[in-house]
Amino acid sequence: MKLRMYVGLSLSAVLLFSCVSQKAMKQQQAKYGELNGAYLELQTKYRGLQDDLSRCNNQVSDLSTKKSAVEASNADLKNQIDYLKQNNNTVLNQLKDLSVVTGAQAESIKKSLDNIGAKDIYIKDLQGSIARKDSLNMALVMNLKGAIGNLDDKDINIKVEKGVVYVDISDKLLFKSGSYDVTDRAKEVLGKVAKVLNAQPEIEFMVEGHTDTVAIKSNGIADNWDLSVKRATTVVRILQNTYGLAPKRMTAAGRGQYLPLADNATAEGRAANRRTRIVILPQLDQFFKLLETKH
């Protein structure tokens, strides 16, 4: 009788231990799954940041190369000017001794040589203004990238080309297919862009609509050109009415299918061409004012 009791107790203990161990194991497996998922998400974000850093490093390297070329050109000009200045007085004295050159003519030549130095200073001022503009453009790009976050580069792309900042947003983020009716995400995306533009009230920009070459079939839309114009005006109205951007800062334009980024013969190319582009307009009036003050 005692033997049966001992055996029963032993079996109960084994079963209890087995249940507890299985429960603990399942809890650990669930925890491991959560941690592994979080780790994979962090890996994805890390790779995205690495790509952004690589692009920024490439842009910095390109600017550094351009800066070195400008500095080398400036050094060469300075050497030429120094040489002319060193020989200026000698040349003038020789010219004064010649009967074919009067004192007034020699003085005119001297003023012309002096103007070379003034023009060198002027060129350096312009180069400094261009360098400052490039720095401001890079800061604007970084602010836009920071505000927009980790959206896929296929859907939104920010770049600088020839001193102009471009923000390309794919049509699927902003508009319903073949329409200028906005999607649910449109205001979210445009709100992030508007936040940066509102912080730079002196900046003017153009909103361009672009399409692929597929003919549009929709009531109230004549063709792709008409669709691109309507999409551009839709975006500027959202920026004005929802986010308070001054309308005098904005221009709405439709490019239709006539300025493609890729070949319309492929689905990928057509998707790249269907986009809304925000162009940060260069502030040419500031350069004109600089030119006026230097003359």
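[next item in queue]
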Amino acid sequence: METLRELWDYPVFRVGASALTVGAIVIIALSFLALYVVSFWLKRLVARRLLARTSLDLGAREAIGSLLRYFLLFWGTIVIIQSAGVDLTALHVLAGAIGVGVGFGLQNIANNFISGIIILFERPIKIGDRVEVAGIDGRVVAIGARATTVITNDNIAIIVPNSFFISEPVVNWTRNDPRVRFKIPVGVAYGSDLRLVEKLLLEAAQEHPEILKDPPPVARLMRFGDNAVEFELRVWSTTLVHQRGKLISDLNFAIFEKFQQHGIEIPFPQRDVHIRSVAPDRVPRGE
């Protein structure tokens, strides 16, 4: 026991006028572990239980929980260091060295952390949003201190640095309103009954269970193209925002079946070649 006590009180290094012993280091390590676990547990308690009873959406609840966790980690760190007997004034030199490190090697990490704080306060994106950024298309599932996790339709998690959402153009499909309009281009052959085509397009949209009745679907005749009369079916949906390919595929199948039933032809590119007659005396010999 005497040996253990001596080892426990053995000074490892000094910070200013304070000496950090083996026991103090062990206590500090356990305290930081407890602080991390408690902050994580408190965030989940606040975001998923207490605030779940309010009218706040999931993104707002997670943002408040994350800010609360950062606040607890910051002040908990100060309390743990002071409780261990470390004079914080002795850490000024260390803080200056860290500042130099941030200016040179850690500026990217600092940029992403500050961007994460801005995202939590301004909320240009939130958990559950459908976003497109830097060629990435997916649903936001987590906003961390350094990066945001986006899940694609292939169930692939992509870790996107927070700075991308501040410095790059971001397409947020569900920023203010969950309703999203989809446009499905359709071409029909010349000579088709255009009013019938409009009616069939609207029927295909109205029969789909995921298409909103308000705003109603509309069919527009866009232009007379080189090979077809070009229509555009415009529909609204809230449930298939994260499965745009499925919605467009379902509508294309329905449109094709209705066109077949009513004899509406979907043309393909064609070219007419006109061969002019050539005088016999101008035909090369041997041909």
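[queue empty]
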